[in-house]
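R.M. (postdoc): so does anyone remember the format we settled on? I'll just put the structure tokens first.
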């Protein structure tokens, strides 16, 4: 028997075999093989069970003779006899699960939809990047068979080591929508950048093979690798019978079906696009464009979630934070000996964190009824720390604990405020149990960040990945098709939330503050005499709120000034979660305003940001108002760029998500025209994918002249630059040159349209302060003075608390 130690780097399965890549301390990677027979449970009438067993025998899929065993039902908290089936062909499980879905209701089946590799890791108590000790034997054909496997590290560790990993980046020079052969593939390592022509597929693969051999990367970080690059590479390799170096694994039988079509699905009215998936075997392929967690929390965020959920890294990269959360809950449920319920949504699309969150936040809002937005001075913002998850932990809220059957009729048990639902007194809920650990982890990282941890970037990513998971936890709780979801438990959380926010408001008022704005888990308060607020005062207040609500209350900051822009739909109401202000230390905070929005062009966002920076140098509104002409000058400097065209057209690009399949568009919205134009170029944009275009002439009668997609522009550029491109290919600023100078004239764009956007961005942040109300006049053709400064203008509108409105 031989022994090997190292980190569990990659894990996947093929048929009943589990493959594990272990990276030793010296950096060596070794492949091991194990066998795994997952266990599922069934409960049905004897006739149906007989049929089921017969079917499994026919498929030769049972490793043992089925036996009855006692297990506990999750919702009912009742022990029942179930048939235990040990499956010898785990590869059949997805198919079986699919078939069973159609028979749903005729019998109950448990544990059949747990990912095979995760099931294996649960059984062995190991997890991705665990430090592992393996006892193994080498077979005649040089395969390392695992005899014993054990983790030497703990899954709950907070400050774990990550082995050193080598990475390579793969991306395309131009938009991924151009025909692949007309693009250039860039491969970037820490030492070198390769520009590989794509015209000849065979040469391309040979070039890449060479690079992979030389650098032997652990991680392939791509942009559009799942959607475009790898499908093309694998297809070309298959057609030409070429071997590739992309996978490290050359022994196991891996079959890939080549797929370029992604899936689009509708979640609560938003269309989401997900590209197909191209994991590698023995390396990590992470497509930054196809990974929510990567976008929000980078690689370390993926590692953090992958470890605690036992989802392999490449699966985690492509999954939602909700899926990771579900697996953490499964882990808890298995330890509690529950029959893990079947996930009805398994065959539906996956939901991303935000959509579930936005579906129904159900939080309490109180806000002042002020026209034209409003501006305040000396305001403090207090936030309940991780309010919803903390409520779930503190009040034991979980789908099985709300209105549980085991406590029916029992006196003196906790009820949900205003709803009166029972909360189980006999069981610790699995959602509350799972979240308790996640909340604890996040608090630990937040504490490290506060204490200036040397690796603050990593800490921030870990913290942020957990934040997203906690955000999802609330949505999943109420989502009836989630594995652990029930509407009443979701309602219970919001009911507690409202109660706590009202308590916070009452305590603040007792302490001589007015609540000027409140939403879900934060309140904005001002002293009744509007005088400056000190941190010491707030600490006292927070402790009192915490005492009464059992949820930690934190000081987000004290603002010198804070402004709530008016709603663009209804100018009388500020939007609940849109505000900006400057803390007393000069730091800016903004939510929901244009400079933070990706669907506005860069130039407009920059302009607003510039104006905000200017505003942040002042401590009072009065000071700002006295120098109003300066901010107007900033506005004009950007307007000047738009008028003269002295700009880079790329800064005018608008990015939008498409909401339909190309055929389904009927109205001539910008995205319709852009999508149809791409169709003409032979590019099919699926619903939920992003498109980028500039507005050329919005009012034009000819639809084709209204908007121009980036792809169309790049194509034009190609034509005009074909002759000269050669000499320049080494220049670093190649993109800029092509876009602005080489055409000898700037790309045409709709000046009026962009100038209007500029006005909008100015108005949003300045209307509560300005001495004039007609912002449109700033870009009017008649250039008379648009405003006159009124002396002693009453900018600080008084907020009358009786004026506040409550929206439940
Ligand atoms: Zn109970």
């Amino acid at each position: 028997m031989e022994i090997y130690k190292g980190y569990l780097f990659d894990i996947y399965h093929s048929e009943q075999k589990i493959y594990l890549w272990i990276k030793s301390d010296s950096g060596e990677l070794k492949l091991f093989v194990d066998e795994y027979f997952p266990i599922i449970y069934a409960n049905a009438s004897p006739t149906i069970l007989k049929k089921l067993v017969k079917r499994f025998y026919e498929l030769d899929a049972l490793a043992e003779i089925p036996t009855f065993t006692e297990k506990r039902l999750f919702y009912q908290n009742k022990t029942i006899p179930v048939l235990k089936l040990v499956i010898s062909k785990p590869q059949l499980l997805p198919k079986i699960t699919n078939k069973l879905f159609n028979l749903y209701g005729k019998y109950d089946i448990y544990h059949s939809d747990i990912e095979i590799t995760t099931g294996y890791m649960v059984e062995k108590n190991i997890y991705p990047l665990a430090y592992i000790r393996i006892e193994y034997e080498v077979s005649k054909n040089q395969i390392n068979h695992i005899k014993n496997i054990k983790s030497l590290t703990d899954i709950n560790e907070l400050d774990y080591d990550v082995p050193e990993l080598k990475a390579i980046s793969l991306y395309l020079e131009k938009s991924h929508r151009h025909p692949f052969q007309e693009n250039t593939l860039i491969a970037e390592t820490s030492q070198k950048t390769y520009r590989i022509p794509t015209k000849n597929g065979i040469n391309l693969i040979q070039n890449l093979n060479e690079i992979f051999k030389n650098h032997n990367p652990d991680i392939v970080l791509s942009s559009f690798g799942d959607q475009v690059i790898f499908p093309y590479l694998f297809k070309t390799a298959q057609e030409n019978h070429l071997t590739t170096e992309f996978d490290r694994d050359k022994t196991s039988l891996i079959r890939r079906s080549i797929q370029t079509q992604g899936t689009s699905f509708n979640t609560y009215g938003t269309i989401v696009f997900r590209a197909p998936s191209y994991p590698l075997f023995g390396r990590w392929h992470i497509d930054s464009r196809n990974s929510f967690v990567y976008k929000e929390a980078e690689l370390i965020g993926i590692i953090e979630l992958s470890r605690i959920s036992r989802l392999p890294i490449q699966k985690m990269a492509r999954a939602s934070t909700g899926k990771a959360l579900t697996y953490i809950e499964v882990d808890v449920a298995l330890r509690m000996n529950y029959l893990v319920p079947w996930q009805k949504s398994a065959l539906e699309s996956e939901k991303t964190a935000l959509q579930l969150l936005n579906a129904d936040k159900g939080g309490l809002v109180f806000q002042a009824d002020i026209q034209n937005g409003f501006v305040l001075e000396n305001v403090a913002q207090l936030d309940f720390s991780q309010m919803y998850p903390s409520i779930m932990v503190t009040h034991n809220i979980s789908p099985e604990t709300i209105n549980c059957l085991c406590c029916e009729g029992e006196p003196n048990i906790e009820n949900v405020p205003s709803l009166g639902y029972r909360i189980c007194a006999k069981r610790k809920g699995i959602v509350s149990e799972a979240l308790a650990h996640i909340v604890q982890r996040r608090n630990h990282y937040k504490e490290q960040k506060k204490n200036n941890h040397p690796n603050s970037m990593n800490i921030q990513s870990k913290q942020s990945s957990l934040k997203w998971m906690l955000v999802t936890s609330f949505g999943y709780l109420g989502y009836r098709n989630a594995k652990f979801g029930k509407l009443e438990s979701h309602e219970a959380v919001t009911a507690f939330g409202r109660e706590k926010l009202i308590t916070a408001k009452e305590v603040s008022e007792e302490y001589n503050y007015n609540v000027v704005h409140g939403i879900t888990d934060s309140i904005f308060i001002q002293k009744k005499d509007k005088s400056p607020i000190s941190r010491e005062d707030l600490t006292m207040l927070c402790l009192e709120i915490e005492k009464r609500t059992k949820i930690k209350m934190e000081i987000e900051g004290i603002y010198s000034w804070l402004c709530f822009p008016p709603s663009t739909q209804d100018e009388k109401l500020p939007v609940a979660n849109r505000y900006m202000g400057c803390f007393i230390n000069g730091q800016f905070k903004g939510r929901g305003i244009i400079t933070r929005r990706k669907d506005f062009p860069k130039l407009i966002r920059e302009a607003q940001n510039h104006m905000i920076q200017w505003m942040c140098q002042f401590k009072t509104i009065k000071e700002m108002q006295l120098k109003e002409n300066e901010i107007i000058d900033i506005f004009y400097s950007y307007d000047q760029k738009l008028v003269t065209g002295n700009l880079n057209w790329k800064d005018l690009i608008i990015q939008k998500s498409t909401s339909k399949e190309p055929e389904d568009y009927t109205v001539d919205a910008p995205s319709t025209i852009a999508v149809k134009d791409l169709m003409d170029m032979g590019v099919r944009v699926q619903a939920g994918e992003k498109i980028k275009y500039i507005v050329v002439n919005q009012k034009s009668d000819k639809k084709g002249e209204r908007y121009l997609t980036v792809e169309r522009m790049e194509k034009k550029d190609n034509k005009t630059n074909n002759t000269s491109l050669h000499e320049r290919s080494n220049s670093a600023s190649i993109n800029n040159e092509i876009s602005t100078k080489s055409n000898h004239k700037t790309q045409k764009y709709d000046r009026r349209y962009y100038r209007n956007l500029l006005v909008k961005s100015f108005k949003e942040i300045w209307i509560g302060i300005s001495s004039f109300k007609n912002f449109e006049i700033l870009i009017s053709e008649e250039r008379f003075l648009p405003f006159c400064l009124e002396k002693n203008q009453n900018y600080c509108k008084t907020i009358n608390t009786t004026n506040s409105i409550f929206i439940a």
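R.M.: ...and that's the designed sequence above, right after the tokens. Also worth knowing: Confidence is low (pLDDT under 50) at residues 266-270, 345-361, 722-744, 784-808. The domain at 649-725+737-745 is CATH 3.40.1820.20 (Ribonuclease H-like motif).
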